[in-house]
UniProtKB/TrEMBL annotation:
Family membership: Belongs to the thymidylate kinase family.
Pfam families given in the database record: Thymidylate_kin
Enzyme Commission number(s) from the entry: 2.7.4.9
InterPro entries: P-loop_NTPase, Thymidylate_kin-like_dom, Thymidylate_kin_CS, Thymidylate_kinase
Protein's UniProt keywords contain Kinase: yes
Domain Thymidylate kinase-like: 5-215
Matching PROSITE patterns: THYMIDYLATE_KINASE
Known catalytic reactions: dTMP + ATP = dTDP + ADP
Keywords for the protein's UniProt record, in alphabetical order: ATP-binding, Kinase, Nucleotide biosynthesis, Nucleotide-binding, Transferase
Taxonomic classification: Bacteria, Bacillati, Actinomycetota, Actinomycetes, Mycobacteriales
The protein's name in its UniProt record: Thymidylate kinase
Keyword Protein biosynthesis attributed: no
Single annotated GO MF: dTMP kinase activity
Protein function: Phosphorylation of dTMP to form dTDP in both de novo and salvage pathways of dTTP synthesis.
């Protein structure tokens, strides 16, 4: 199974993915874990990171350009993911294609002025139905051959809570300085909404939503591990 954990920056995805990995290992389930973007190993991801920190001129202004860089990062390991899946591993992914879809839809809403005075609460259209969402799916799952996940987990939290966590993380670790997306409060609000719409519509595969504000990481990890084991038909 390929399982993607999605959510805005500061939602707690990495913490939950690590907890689920440990829970599955304790149940003797073969598991592999990978996080995107792969800033330490991928040239496309490194270029995207530089753009997000204002080091690539106006590259960050291109919604499709940034989305393509993130997609190419996944393309680099698409065959590896398929092989691990074929070998029987449960693959836990911290971010995946839905991140590209959610952020691109949110950025497009901003660009098109559908939000009155850039207010995320004023958007009427369903972000999950934006043309760019289908474009991302065609690019990644179609042209680039990125495998479709079997399950997507939305680590759901309000944008304000996620922002507080991201700021705290930045203060505690200078290497985790927030980028152009993370410091845009309106964008984060829109992205939370886009994620929730994608989950509601079971975009591209089944979704499972967990309330990250509960703070019970161990219980959430057990809940997700139970779900995975039921799908695998193992104890």
């Amino acid at each position: 199974m390929i399982i993607a954990f999605e959510g805005v920056d500061g939602a707690g995805k990495n913490t939950l993915v690590t907890a689920v990995e440990q829970e599955l290992i304790s149940r003797e389930v073969a598991v592999a874990k990978l996080g995107f973007p792969r800033y330490e190993h991928s040239i496309p991801a490194q270029l995207a990171q530089s753009a997000l920190h204002q080091k690539m001129g106006d590259l960050t202004e291109s919604i499709h350009g940034m989305a393509t860089l993130f997609a190419l990062d996944r393309h680099d390991v698409a065959d590896d993911l398929s092989e691990l899946d074929g070998d029987g591993y449960v693959i836990l992914l911290d971010r995946y294609t839905a991140s590209n879809a959610a952020y691109s839809a949110a950025r497009s809403a901003q660009r098109e002025g559908t939000a009155s005075e850039s207010s995320a609460t004023a958007v009427d259209a369903r972000l999950s139905e934006h043309d760019v969402v289908n474009w991302v799916a065609s690019l990644e799952f179609g042209m680039l051959g990125v495998p479709v996940p079997d399950l997507q987990v939305l680590v759901d939290v309000d944008a304000e809570v996620a922002a507080e966590r991201a700021v705290k993380r930045e203060l505690g670790d200078a290497s985790r300085a927030r980028d152009a997306y993370e410091t845009d409060d309106d964008l984060q609000q829109l992205t939370v909404r886009a994620y929730r719409e994608l989950a509601q519509s079971n975009w591209r595969s089944p979704w499972h939503v967990v309330d990250a504000a509960r703070g019970e990481t161990r219980l959430l990890a057990e809940e997700i591990a139970d779900l995975i084991c039921r799908e695998l038909k193992v104890d």
